[in-house]
Amino acid sequence: MGLFLIGILGLSCLSTSIFKQQNQALAQQYIQTIKHRNLVIDLGNGSKTNAQLTYPAIGKGPFPGVLLISGSGATDKNGTLGFVHKNGPKPLTPYLQIAQYLSERGFAVLRYDKRGIGANFTINQNVWGNATINDLIQDADKALAVLALQPEVNPNNVTILSHSEGTIIAPRVAIDNPTKVKNIVLMGAMAQNVRELGYFQAIYLPLLYGEKVLDHNHDGLLSVSEATKNPVFSSMVGNLTLVLKQNITSITNGSTTQQLNPQYNTNKDVYISINNELKPKLVEQFNSLSVVRPGEKCNLLRPLPCPIWIKSHYALESTLNIIGNVPPATSILILQGENDTQTPLQQAFLLQQKLTDKRHPDHTLITYPNLGHQFYPSSQWSTGLGPYEQYVLADLYAWLEAHSGLSHSYVTPTTMIGANTSSLNTNTTFSSSSSKR
Predict the structure, then answer these.
(1) Do the Cβ atoms of 431 and 416 come closer than 8 Å?
(2) Residues 84 and 188 in one domain
(3) Are 240 and 134 members of one domain?
(4) Structural domain contains residue 55
(5) Is residue 26 part of a domain?
(6) R_g of the chain computed on alpha carbons
(7) CA distance 223 to 233
(8) Which of 251, 267, 300 delimits the end of a domain?
(9) Within-domain flag for 307
(10) In a shared domain, residues 289 and 418
């Protein structure tokens, strides 16, 4: 009984302490800890884009600089996940979250809208619809030059921090600017070409989900009715009814229309073969993504990626093939969620292996159990959406602090488990356990 009472008292004191800390934090939100300045970046050929620099509220600097390069899609500088409504809930802004976190702790961070993208997903069709990956790489080069010119920034101490598609761009910018980039950070890293990753996302993963989750009798069949209603499966393949449609030619007038084959009637509990019927349809849909159709608009009403962008990616050499060309003086940090369904964990392992093989002197990989592509708790099948976990940002800051001259050494977070150091002492792989944070 005595131990039980002590335990209750301990919990009471702990919760009181936490409550006081939360109250203190809330009560001091009005205190300015960062400043910002809006900028415009000239991308050339008449295109310009909006940017913002955030930096510490106190101190003359110059501060270590960070250039933030976003992931794929019509992404603004905040990485806004959803429309902003006047009286509605505010959408997530993960890139703004990173910028504020780092600027509060001593960094000047520049982030920018993608070419052709404005506030609240306004899109310049001519610019965005014709953008290629090479355009985006050149845009990052220009943004790096703008960052280095800011009086608050130390141009000799710059990190490129990238996410998803940005991890294709960051190594290339570092290779092109060997004396200007001190570090690169790859979050949700892409090692293979977009073609291989697209195949994984659009074909392999839904087929695996169908096999493991929807094929209850383990006979290679799934119920069309059940699959159509399954939200996870629908997030992978879209509208299954549309996927199963086929061109039907009229006998009477010879015209061709798209109709649902009667055998796939979702009102009946009919079954389709995962490999013989579903897979060919998914392959057909995937192959159509890179087909450029004259006059077709590429905007948010078109949920699929822009064909011109996809074709440019297909022609690009994989990051795995060029990562070894990152200068040895440029340190590399890779952060990867172990439940990432968009850029799977194996992508990070491939990059780590290539860097080790090339004997790059300073690269680190940290993986996070149960986190997905947005570094938020996720299942093995779908990406959870929410703010970046604080312990991920803490790991990011700790590494940057040590590699930007704000501290003398990189101290491995005490929550890291299963540390495995390779033959080169600075090449380290960690698995981070969120439950210990």
Answers:
(1) yes
(2) yes
(3) no
(4) yes
(5) no
(6) 24
(7) 12
(8) 300
(9) no
(10) no
**Residues 230, 185 share a domain:** no
The predicted-structure confidence for 281-330, as pLDDT tens digits, reads as follows 999 989 988 887 776 767 654 556 789 999 999 999 999 999 999 999 99
Question: Do 292 and 414 belong to one domain?
Answer: no
Domain count, the chain: 2
Same domain, 50 and 160: yes
357 neighbors 320 (Cβ within 8 angstroms) = no
- What pLDDT shows up at residue 436? 38
Find the domain containing 264 and state its range.
199-300
CATH number at residue 430: 3.40.50.1820
Measured in degrees and rounded to the nearest 5, phi and psi for residue 140 equal: -65, -40
As a dihedral over the C-alpha atoms of residue 183, residue 187, residue 193, residue 197, rounded to 10 degrees, the angle is 170
Tokens in use for 230?
């399954």
How many angstroms separate the most distant Cα atoms in the chain? 90
Whether residue 23 is predicted with pLDDT greater than 90 in this model: the reply is: no
Half-sphere exposure of 211 (CA within 13 A, CB side): 10
The mean pLDDT of 70-94, rounded to a whole number, is 81
**Same domain membership, residue 231 and residue 166:** no
Both tokens assigned to 429:
């792989």
Residue owning tokens 């959408």:
91
Domain match, 174 and 323 both: yes
Is residue 172 in some structural domain?
Answer: yes
Question: Could you tell me which residues come within 8 angstroms of residue 284 by beta carbon, excluding any fewer than 6 positions away?
Answer: none
pTM: 0.84
Report the alpha-carbon distance of residue 302 to residue 297 in Å, rounded: 8
* CA–CA distance, 241 with 171 (Å, rounded to integer): 41
> Looking at 246, 267, 300, which one is the last position of a domain?
300
Average pLDDT, the chain: 83
